[in-house]
Amino acid sequence: MAAPELREIEELRRLLRHHEHRYYVLDQPEISDAEYDALMRQLAELERKHPESVTPDSPTQRVGGAPREGFVQAPHSSPMLSLDNALDEVELRDFDRRVRDLLGHDGYRYTAELKLDGLSLALRYRDGVLQRAITRGDGETGEDVTENARTIRSIPLRVIDGPAEFEVRGEVIMTKKAFERLNAGREPDQRYANPRNSAAGSLRVLDSTITAARQLDFYAYLLMAGGEAMFDSQWQSLDRLSGMGFKVNVERKLCHGMEELVEFTRSWEPRREDLPYEIDGVVAKVDSVAQQRQLGWTAKAPRWAVAYKYAAEQAETVVESIEVQVGRTGTLTPVAQLHPVRVGGVTVSRATLHNEDEIRRLGLAVGDTVIIERSGDVIPKVVRVSGEGEGRKEFRIPSSCPVCSEPVVRAEGEVASRCVNPDCPARLKESILHFASRGVMDIDGMGEALVDQLVARGMVKSIADLYQLKAEQLAELERMGEKSAARIMKGIEASLGKPMPRVLNGLGIPFVGERTAQLLAEHFGSLHAIAEAAEEALQEAEEVGPKVSQSIQGFFRAPHNLQLVERLREAGLQFTHEIKRKQAGPLAGLTFVITGTLPGMSRDEAKELIEATGGKATNSVSKKTSYLVAGEEAGSKLEKAQALGIPVIDEAKLRELAGA
User: Fold this and answer.
1) Could you give the CA distance from residue 265 to residue 549 in angstroms, rounded to a whole number?
2) Out of 316, 450, 552, 623, which residue is the most buried by the measure of CB atoms under 10 Å away?
3) Quick one: which of 110, 118, 111, 91 has its CA closest to 280?
C-alpha cells in the first residue's frame, strides 16, 4: 500500500475518533451526522481496497460482526465486589461511624457519584488498544463480551495517553431515549421491562450487530493497573479517566464530611426523573486509596464504600382481580391484576402477591386500594392495603389447578401450593421455556408465542419432543416461515452439544440451578451417577445439603422423569462430564496470588503457567496462599501478604519454581 493512502487512512481514523469523542462522550458535536457518515464511508472504502490495513481499533469495527456460538469465561484481575447498601440516612450515618471508628479519626473525604442502574463491565487495554471486555459475572469470573463492547461508541477502541497496560471499570447503561426507541412499535405484551434489563440483554446477545443497534452507553468509574487503583484518590482517578477520553459522570461531588454527603443524596432524589438515564441511588467512596486499603474488605464488599439506595417508587391503585399462574415446578403464584397506574415512568397493571400466606399478611381482598412499589422489577409488588373496597372478595388458592384441573397440594412446612400433575400444560410451557433459555440449552427463537403453539397443538408434550420436531412442522405455525423454522432447528441441533451441567439444569429439578448443576457434574461425572446416588452420596458434593439431595432423589424416583431422561439420552444430549483432576507438576498443591505488573508476561499468562504446572491461581490473599507473585506497582495485596507472613516472589522465582 502506498504511503499517501496509509497516511490518509490514519488521518481519517484520527478525525473519526476525535468526532466520536466530541459526540458520544462530551455531547459537543463539531460536525453534522451527514459529514461524519461521509468520513466513515471514505475510511471504509479505503480499508476495503486495503484489507491488510484494518486494525481492531479502527472506527469501522464498531458495527459488529458475525454471530458467535457463545461467550467464553474470563477471570477478573481482582474481584469485582458488590457494595453494601444503606437504605436510609440512619444506615448511611452508621456506615460513616464505622469508617470513623476503623480509621480512628475523621480526616477523610467521600467521593459521591450517582448510582447508575446498569451493569458493570471491566475493559482491559494494552499499548492503548482495547483487548478485552468482561462482565461482572460472579465477581471472580465474567463473560468475555469484547466484540459487543466494541460497538458501544463511548468506549474508546484506542487510548492515546495511557500506561502500557491498564483496566477501566464502569457501568453499561441504556438511556431513557434509547429504551423508548427500542420499545417503539412493539405490542404491549412484547415490550421490554426496563432500561437496566435491556442493557444487560443487549450486551449479552451473540449477534454484535444487535448490540450496535441498541445504542448502549458506558460511564467509567475506576482506573486500575495490576488489579489495583492507579491513583492516590478516587477523585484523581475520575479526572484521569476523563482526560484519557472516557465518559465520566459530571454529576459527582467531593464531600468534606457527612453533612455534605447527606446533602448530595437529598438533592438528587427529587431530580432523578429529570436525568437522561435511570439511577437508584448514590455511591459514596472514601476518597483516599491509602485509607481504602486501611479499611479493607469483607468477603463480599469493601468497607470503604456504600450504595445509598433511594426508596423504591410507589403509587396507589385498585386490585381488580387476582389470577393464578402455574410455574414449571407446579407452584401456584397469585398475581394481582391492577387498575393501570404510572410508577416511575412505567405503566403498571400487574403485581406479584407471592403466595396465599402473603395475601393473608397484607389483609388483601379483590377491590381493595393498595400501595404498589417498583424498583426495577419486571413485576412490582404490593406493599400494603391503603383502603378496603366495597364488596371486597377474599381470595383463596384453588384446590385444583386452574389449567389442568388436577389436585393442588401444599406440603407441610412450605408456603407454596403446587399442581402435582407432571403433564400439566402450564408446567410444560414453563419447563420448555426454562430448558430453551440462555444459559441452559440456549435454543434461539424458542419464545413464549412459539411454545404456546407447540403445546396447544400437541406437537410437544415433553421437552424431549423438541428433538422430534421437523422444520416443515414449524414453518406452518403462525408468525413462522422457512427461515425462522430453520433457525430454531439449528438451535435445537446445537443444543445437543451443550455440556452435561446445562442438561441437568434444564431438567428443572427444584433447588438445582446453574451452579449446583455444575458442582454435581464435577463431583459425579455423569447424569446417570447423579440419578442413582443415595442422599448421603449426593451430600458429599460441594454445597449440596439435605433439602437439595431430597429434591434430586424425589425427581429421579418419579417414573415419568426417568422416562424423560432416557428419551433425552436417546436424542443424543451430553450425559457425561469430564471431572478435572488436579494436574501433577512442580507447583502441585500450591496456591498463588499475582499482583502488580510483571516484566515478562501478562497476569493471564502467569496464571496459565501456574495452572499448567499443577498450581492454583486465586485473586485474594489469605492464610491458604502459598506465594504472592509481586510485580511493579504492587499494592494492598503485598501489604496483606507481608502481614500474614506469606512468601513474596518475583516473576523469575515463579518461573524457577515452575521449571520454566
Assistant:
1) 47
2) 552
3) 118
Amino acid found at 51: P
Helix (H, G, I), strand (E, B) or coil at 582: coil
User: Is residue 319 within 8 Å of residue 370, measured between CB atoms?
Assistant: yes
- Given 260, 284, 309, the domain boundary residue is 309
251/106 same-domain check: yes
Q: Under DSSP, is residue 601 helix (H, G, I), strand (E, B) or coil?
A: coil
Under DSSP, the state recorded for 197 is H
pLDDT along the chain (660 residues), means of 10: 73 79 69 73 78 76 55 85 87 93 92 93 93 88 90 90 89 91 65 78 80 90 89 94 93 95 93 87 94 84 90 87 88 92 79 89 94 69 90 91 89 80 84 88 88 91 93 89 89 93 91 84 91 89 81 88 92 88 75 84 82 78 84 81 90 89
Measured in whole angstroms, how far is the alpha carbon of residue 641 from the centre of its chain?
Answer: 31
Which cell numbers hold the place of 420?
402435582
Residue 85 parent element (H or E): strand 85-86
Query: Where do we find the cell 451417577?
Result: 529
Which sequence positions are flagged as catalytic?
Answer: 115
Pairing, β 591-595 against β 616-618: parallel
The CATH number covering residue 110 comes to 3.30.470.30
361 and 390 assigned to the same domain: yes
Q: How far apart (Å, rounded) are the C-alpha atoms in residues 470 and 473?
A: 5
- The reported pTM is 0.53
Q: How far is Cα 311 from Cα 534, in angstroms, rounded to an integer?
A: 47
